[in-house]
Amino acid sequence: MKIGILGSGAVSKSLAAGFVKHGHAVMLGTRQPAKLAEWAAHNLKTDVGTFAEAAAFGDLLVLAVKGSAAAEALRAAGPANLAGKPIIDTTNPIADTPPVNGVLRFFTSLDESLMERLQREFVDARFVKAFNSVGSSVMVNPQFEDGKPTMIICGNDEAAKKSVGGILDQFGWETADMGKAEAARAIEPLCMLWCIPGFLRQDWRHAFKLLR
Ligand SMILES: NC(=O)c1ccc[n+]([C@@H]2O[C@H](COP(=O)([O-])OP(=O)(O)OC[C@H]3O[C@@H](n4cnc5c(N)ncnc54)[C@H](OP(=O)(O)O)[C@@H]3O)[C@@H](O)[C@H]2O)c1
Q: What is the pTM of this model?
């Protein structure tokens, strides 16, 4: 598939490497393509462009920008370039104020997630929340002693979730679909939980598993 990744941070780079590893074509989008020149020189199979160029390139998109800038980045990408496409939404609504005893603060409430806000503004895009509840270093084919981890996802469009489920299979995850966009109210805070052992004990290597 052709994958357009909006973002230039740790998540974008980790997922870009994963997509290339699994044979996909990738373009990373950023406000300043020039700043990725050195990275691009070492990642020859990945193109770099603007947010709009990456969004136009991809059949499937990944949103991996700072949560508070997500809507701005999507506006720059251009709603026409998003229409009808699955968008893996990795973002978390992390506030600029510091964590309290290792617990991040969010700028959203438990009655409205960031993904719902984005879905409401970009009505023709097909957002799927995924990869937000795990660190960038363990997103692609992670090996854990206790077996395959679970990626908890949600989104309004069934076909988009199926496409993302296929990617998750390739990336070594089992998928637990929690339903429509409102489930992001519960999935986004999993990021807070995931980060606590990191902030308290420098333990950043774990993932969630749903047992049945
Ligand atoms: N880091 C992790 O391990 C991790 C794990 C799970 C989920 N997440 C979530 O994934 C997202 C990406 O995280 P990250 O750590 O890779 O990167 P990040 O530092 O949170 O964000 C960097 C990206 O945000 C963009 N950005 C910042 N301000 C902007 C603005 N005003 N307008 C447009 N774009 C703007 C930057 O654009 P430019 O390229 O133009 O500078 C850059 O691409 C975040 O929402 C984060 O909460 C992170």
A: 0.98
